[in-house]
Amino acid sequence: MAWFRRSKASIETVPQRKETPDGMWSKCDGCGEIIHRKQLELQFFTCIKCNYHFRIGSKEYLTILVDEGSFKEMDRKMRSTDMLDFKDTKQYRDRIKDSIRKTGLNDAVRTGLGKINGIEVVVGAMDFSFIGGSMGSVVGEKVARAIDKARKSKRPLIIVSSSGGARMMEGALSLMQLAKTSARLAQLSDAEIPYISVMTDPTTGGVTASYAMLGDINIAEPGALIGFAGPRVIKQTIGKDLPEGFQRAEFQLEHGFVDMVVHRKEMKETITKLLRLIWE
After folding, report:
1. β-strands 217-220, 72-74 pairing
2. 137 Cβ contact partners less than 8 Å away, ≥ 6 residues apart
3. What is the C-alpha separation between 197 and 178, in angstroms, rounded?
């Protein structure tokens, strides 16, 4: 029999760990640095240590680019339909519903009217979180309508691309959007209204093969993957090692595919200077 008894519960020697709320910290994919969410926002979602540019949504990019309170969205209610009754790992109509529920978007691009440092523009921003930023019928139609709006209202056009390419679930209908958007941009060019294309990571496939590369000025963010087919597919096709940095923004600048590589925190001021030079 024990010669003493505890009158209180056992003393805890290890303090309880406070749980960190989800989403407060992010790990940099470039250098592994752990960054607080608030600090990341203040740095325009870029790493202060290695300059890595995080992928951000259309809402965040429009907040960075467009004057506060000036953005008025167009064609917000447009949604894709499963016209081919397509199914891969899941039914396409279910994939659309899930993406709408998760992202709060109706498709992979936001378009609208806004101001950039007081300059009236038509602006579009793609969102990679919606089925990989793929371009289906709705994305193509919204971009085409944005181009028409720029032409009719005589406002410069700015499109921020982030995409895996044409949406395979819509087959040839998605490929038709390449011709449609390219033809509309030709009309915009004939009207002598400037179009600035901003390419973020990644900008690939049919989007690169159409409106992303057809800007009067093509701007890329540092380190952005820009190309048609991805490096892995190209390497497998040609059976050779690719140059270091192949298809990254700096490589594309060196080879003449883009005009400028601009840090995200300098993007708004750079576009403003360009517009004042070529438009005002």
Report:
1. unpaired
2. 80, 83, 170, 173, 174, 176, 177
3. 15
Tokens 């380190």 sit on residue = 223
How far is it, in rounded angstroms, from Cα 42 to Cα 7?
Answer: 53
Domain-wise residue ranges, the chain: 24-54, 56-278
Q: What is the pLDDT of residues 219-253, one digit of tens each?
A: 999 999 999 988 888 888 888 888 888 999 999 99
Contact status, residue 161 vs residue 207, Cβ threshold 8 Å: yes
Which residues are registered as beta bridge partners of 220?
Answer: 199, 261
Within the chain, residue ranges assigned H as helices are: 37-42, 58-65, 92-103, 137-153, 172-190, 205-208, 231-238, 249-254, 267-278
Report the candidate in 149, 172, 169, 52 with the shortest Cα–Cα distance to residue 108.
Answer: 169
Distance between CA atoms of residues 100 and 119, nearest Å: 32
Average pLDDT over residues 190-204: 97
pTM, two decimal places: 0.89
Secondary structure letter of residue 229 according to DSSP: S
What is the phi/psi pair of residue 162, to 5°? Answer: -155, 100
For the stretch 101-123, pLDDT in tens is: 999 999 999 999 999 999 999 99
The answer to whether domain 56-278 has CATH 3.90.226.10 is: yes
Q: How many CA atoms lie within 13 A of 24 on its CB side?
A: 4
Spatial CA neighbour of 255 closest among 209, 229, 220: 220
Mean pLDDT of 86-94: 95
Cα–Cα distance for residue pair 215/233, rounded to 1 Å: 26
CB atoms within 10 A of CB 259: 17
For residues 221 and 203, the answer to whether their CB atoms sit within 8 Å is no
Mean pLDDT computed over 32-54:
93
